[in-house]
Amino acid sequence: MESGQISDYGFLADGRTAALVDASGSVNWWCPGRFDAPSVFGRLLDDGAGHWSIRPEVDFTVERSYLKDTLVLRTVFRTAQGEVALTDALAFEPGSRGHDIGMHPPQVLVRSVQGLSGAVPMRVHYRPRFEYGRTIAYLVEREDMLEAIAGAARLTFRSSVRLACGDDGDAAATFTVRAGRTHNFSLGYAPTYDAPLPEVPDADQTIADTVAGWRSWTGEHEYQGLYAEEVRRSGLVVQGMTYRPSGAVVASVTTSLPEKLGGDRNYDYRYVWVRDFSHTLRALWRSACFDEVRRQFAWLGRAMGRIGDQPVPIMYGVLGERDLTEHRLDQLGGYRDSPPVVTGNDAWRQRQNDIYGAAMDAAWLMRDQLEPFDPDVYHLLRVLADQAEQDWKQPDAGMWEERGIQHHHVSSKVECWVALDRAVRFGDQLGGPQDLARWTAARDEVRAAILERGWSDRLQSYTGIFDSDELDASVLVMPLVGFLRADDPRMRSTVRAVERGLSHDGLLRRWDGDPAGFVICSFWLVSCLALGGERDRAHELFRDLAGRVNDLGLFAEQIDQQTGEQLGNFPQAFSHIGLINAAGVLTDVEQDPTLRNCGMPPAHFTPTRR
């Protein structure tokens, strides 16, 4: 069995970085150190860019699952000779529990092979390639370890099976796993200089401790609502995509997985977008991740720093870095021969006016924790409101980050309205009478412009750009941020038009010509239907969408409307955040009859701790 699709991958995480393991037992992506570091295993993007496989030497079938309430992966290989279980984990620091997990991980990938029945011939193939496949390391045997050093990275490999080193920087071995026997493998990473040798702990104890760490974290987060199993899994995925030292949630853990096979819309998503911020905080709040909510907002304030007259950056690195200049990696052929492969993302240079609303809405959600305002928070929120007042008339790149062109995007105007609306709601905590009068006047002006210039009489729908007749799924955020009631006649008509023009089998494209369904847009549709009174349809669509995950409960960014194949970077935080928030809206509508047919989501959440 060979992996060929994005959905074939399982996802491991340790609070600093992530690894992807395909269904045949090959680690084809690992960037040790941090999510956006250079890879040491990159076969995901080119066959020659490194991997570490453990698999039967004979024909096999596979059944996979995560150990309950963890991101520790168990793959069972079934062969004519017997069955073998492979358990994979990125290790937590020993003894870490609850909100301490992932703060200081040892940077160790552990793999354990256990015989379940019979005697199965196995093969392990270790092929590290540093700097996205550019560098082949010398493999050096040192007592019971195999060391690989190249440039700035050093790997130490320990195995209960002796591997033979080849002449091309590879090592391999064959072995037989019998029922009741276990063979363990550990791989540790450390910088080449100014760091001790990588830790290579006992695999059995490390896996058990990592399982306990994940379960202790899960035990502190009790979501009380509908679709609890799906929400718990998505909450774990979002936690796995969190850079624990700063609290920042990356959009994805991969780069350059294509939106369309053979296309060139390949981007690096291992960064943090301000636009995603209120959606992320809402999802964390929904899934009762209170500590993560506070840390996320604190990270945003530090990343932005003191804002002047220049546009606010739209994205950052996990520690708040601003310069994310894009570079092509021409040595890599790309996922299934779909170049280019890039690191960095030039969207950091764009103007995106929706970020004002995203940040202000996050502050509004967090108001109980923020009040009274610290001086830096007070300054940040005032500047965001003032910039929304100043910039809302400016064209921008929009939510979908158009390159080389700017338009008056309706969703960006809506988010400017959100920023001004939340500033007015904060009242005298944020501004004096003159400030509130300015923000109120600008808010009303933005709203009037959207209602007039964002509406198409021909389509009987709000559209993606002022004065256009082009449908765009981004306008579905209007009821979700309180701009319009979901049962408003024009909003109802918009939902019908968007669904009719952009949806196929429940999957919603962003615009006409978008190559695939965009997962979070489909969940926005669920929320709009629920808030608009179409409760049964909303539940039916939610269940259909939730069933489109891979066998491990993971979403990519997009799903092909015809084939059902997952596309784009993987796993995608936005997709899982969309699921969590849609489940929350469905819960609200079921629990609070006043929300039915009124179209306004709760302004504030007060979930209970366990």
Explain what the structure shows.
The chain is 31% helix and 20% strand. The chain has 610 residues and is of the alpha+beta class. The strands form seven sheets. Strands 1, 2, 3, 4, 5, 6, 7, 8, 9, 10, 11, 12, 13 and 14 form a 14-stranded antiparallel β-sheet that branches. Strands 25-26-27 form a three-stranded antiparallel β-sheet. It starts with 9 loop residues before the first strand and ends in a 19-residue tail after the last helix. The protein is built from 15 helices and 27 strands. The chain is globular, with a radius of gyration of 25 Å. 54% of the residues are buried.
**Proportion of helical residues:** 25-40%
Which stretches are poorly predicted, pLDDT < 50 over at least 5 residues? 597-610
Supply the helix-strand structural class. alpha+beta
What does the main sheet amount to? Answer: 14 strands, antiparallel
Mean pLDDT: 91
Distance between the termini: 44 Å
The dominant shape is globular
**SS elements, strand count:** 27
Radius of gyration: 25 Å
Fraction of residues in β-strands: 15-25%
- Helix count, per DSSP? 15
List descriptors:
31% helix; 610 residues; 15 helices; globular; 27 strands; 3-stranded antiparallel β-sheet; single chain; 14-stranded antiparallel β-sheet; alpha+beta
